[in-house]
Amino acid sequence: MKRILCLTLAVCMMAVFALTGCGSSSGPADSTAAASSSAAVQTQQLGSNAGANATEMNFWTFVDLHGKHLDKMLGLWNEKNPDKQIKLNVTVMPYDDMHNKLLIAVQTGQGAPDIADIELGKFPNFLEGDNVPLEALNDVFEPYKSTTVPARVEIYSKGDKVYGFDYHVGATLAYYNTEILDKAGVDYKTIKTWDDYKKAGIQVYEKTGKYMGTADTSATWQASLLLAQQNSDFTDDNGQPKVNSPEMIKAMEMLVDLQKNNVIHTIPGGQPDTEEAKGEYNKGNYASALMPEWFMSRFINEMKDLKGKYAIAPLPVFKEGDPRSVGLGGTGTVVTKTSKNVQLAKEFVAFAKLSKEATTEIWNTLGFDPVNMEVWNDKAVTHNPDNEYVQYFKTNAFDTLNEIKNEIKAIKSVKASPTINNILCTVTLNAIFEDGQDVKEALNEAQEQITQELK
Amino acid sequence: MIKKFVYSQKVAPYIFVLPFVIIFLIFWLFPLANSFVMSFQERMLGQDPKWIGTANYTKLLTDKVFLKSITNSVVYMVGTLILLIPFPMLFACLINSKLMWGREFFKSSFFLPALTSVAVAGTIFRLIFGEMESSLMNSILSLFGIGPFKYLKDQNLSMAALLTLACWRWTGVNMLYYLSGLKSIDSEYYEAASIDGASAWQKFRAITMPLLKPTTIYVLTISIYAGLAMFTESLMMFNGNNSPKNIGLTIVGYLYRQGIEKNKLGYAATVGIVLLVVAMTINLTQLKLSGTFKKEED
Amino acid sequence: MNNLHNTGGTRQNIIAKVLLLLFFSVLFIVIMLPFYAVALSSFKPGADLIRYGLNLRLDLDVMSFKNFEFLFTGKHDYFMWFKNSMFLTIGQVTLTLFISAFVAYGFAAYDFKGRNLLFVCVLLIMMVPFEILLLPLYSLINDLHMMNSYSAIIVPGIANAGTIFFFRQYLRSIPKELIQSGRVDGANEYLIFFRLILPVLKPSFAAMAILNGMNSWNNLLWPFMVLGDQNKFTLPIGLKTLLTPYGNNYDLLIVGSFFSIIPIFILFVAFQKYFIDGMTAGAVKG
Known about the structure:
Chain B has 16 helices and two strands. Chain B is mostly helical. Chain B is globular and about 70 Å long.
């Protein structure tokens, strides 16, 4: 009897789950609510204003917010192009999984979407070999060529063919928690060089017990920006790895020195752009972050307690006159060769990523520094007081961005890059900052292992 | 005519086993053979394979990351053997005691963790072993004035975390194996030993342990396979296949990394073959040493 | 004298009883701790979970039913995964049990040429870790154009070696007279299987259904490799996808994990015996 009762209960529960499931997930998505930031991973169909004749397309991404952006652009596109309307099925998957699945899908020609986001670090995997499975976007890029940052297009190109459009430049900036700095009696505006940063950091630690910044073990933002400031890179002109270069040693030794002086410290999650680390920042345990411009959106969305406390400034440098920024991170939106509507997909991607409407929207909703710089000088957009990215920070990001505009370097993304990144983030940086391994030794080992893996 | 053929008693057994034969050939023997073939090729999905002889094998021998993954898997396997054989055996004997109150209750509750999926259990333990001071493990240890530790960044601690997960999930199940083994032991042995004045420990050594041998061999065999082939636990624990300094990388994890993440199917197949050889060698040796084959020939 | 000895024994027994109970109670608490922590955390905001880790802190200020509310009313795919998992599990178990019983009967009831060789093949499958076949199987599924379909998950395991083995052991104990009587009645070989054998197998079906069902319900790696379409994701895959830094999914993660265990819990309470039979089936000497 008891058994039957339990079985009935279980079956009923399952049935209820399944039925409520029908109601909540298979109904047509309301396009405005569909991509709200609290939405979990899900497939959404965008383009509710599209007519019955609209072309249906699939879009894969690993960032919820990118779906949100494309949704807005889709609305505009469908209004402007009643004859070429689009319906977009958006699938959001975790970073690693999406790239693994996408790579296999485009290589086998089975199940690939029409449009996809590929993160910069994974991009070279897609350009390997003679048959690139992506469509060249040169023709749709032409109208925007003159105003777009060339370095941000080059990283998604092979030969003279452009394969992806980015959301942002990702210029690295310094974010300072002025509340902590004020307590320690430090004025962030006086921090010009790494020596200044170190002095300030020591003072912050002595006065408040907080760390000035992070020693990253699971990302290469710091390593990249320090290399770029020395006009160096992880790879040489032939694309061969050189992670044990004198510049890299200098960069790492400087960071180790900062760590020894309690200026920087390792952080849960291993780098600022992780959930654990954002928690630490939100608690006010770190006084600065040296991160790309897109980190602004993390402040707004996930570190709400810090509103009004953070100021933005150029990065410290080794010696004054060195380039103060580098474009880091990024996601190229591509069109796959297996798409049934290549031309339409290309036109839409260019519109959604590079047009004036798109770049304005990118700043407004995503808070990114768009690759099409036309908008950088449009004060009505960049200093719009209704913009939450303008409200959150004590200083305007574009004041700093325009100041360093001509100093934004690039780190090459080549065939060896994913391997280099993988070794540094899993092995080397941990060995240096967590285990205290000697910098030269660790970097030599890394170089050896990278060469071995690339064979 | 066909009907008669199919219905004949001679043909019927073949019809019965046909589904197995088909599945065996297509989804087992062919892939296994293909795995051997692939291990001598440079092969990517969507591209033509290239024969490269034994290059994959020679590369594997000097591949430090692969050696690391083998070490991790073997250490994990040995750890599970040490923790998941003697203790469950002991618990089974204790819980089987006539003096035990609430036997059924404990039996079923210890079984509960085995019901959770790796996806869920791995996530739970990932959060329990968080490096924040307020995570469960750190807050428990702080009661004793130890820690906090960064469990998932340290070689030994992360292995301990993985083993804790394994113990949590499988202690109850292994205990049940031993309980069903104990059931088959005739109580007369114990009575006879009691008359001879044997102590509890002597009875355990002389009667229980030897008579539980078949169970132990079974548990040993599956634990060796499960230990060497462990992957999803690590995948969930480190939230991905890339753990700091590869402390969580297992053999299958490396196979996955090379095959799925890097699309080097040939090299990954070689990893698989090595795993097969290692697992087979260890288990056949173990079965031979314990004399299992002799018994089965009877 | 005798009396004295007895009371002493009883006192010892009581101490032993208490010690045993104490020992197992401690063990019980340790084993239940993660469940308790999860249950507790399902009332906390998801971001807290990642920022502070899973813990036992009872913080009534931040605890609420919001996660449960979100689970039942929010916009997410949880119940689609749930449905998919149920569909897949039921389909997989039904087909696997039926085919495996069919095959096992062939092995148990007939003496035919090649039987031993084929049975060695069954044992061989049980001896080799499935993980080794991941890649060749993966590329085979790709070549067969079965990628992204449930058949890619169900078909390779449809003649499950462990299940065949178990059924065969069970069927060996069935008297041959039963089969003979069927033949005398004029039934053909297949009718005998359907009419006479399947009913006899019922009790062992329950154990195997639960074992296969649990494996299927909890299976992650293989389905995750072959399923690319989000609309086909199963519960374990779905829960795994929630662990991404690029979306705020943590609210759903823990409450969803918690919820995924509940149906199995209920089934377990009801069919405990079969669960245990199924799980320990392999250890029963053949």
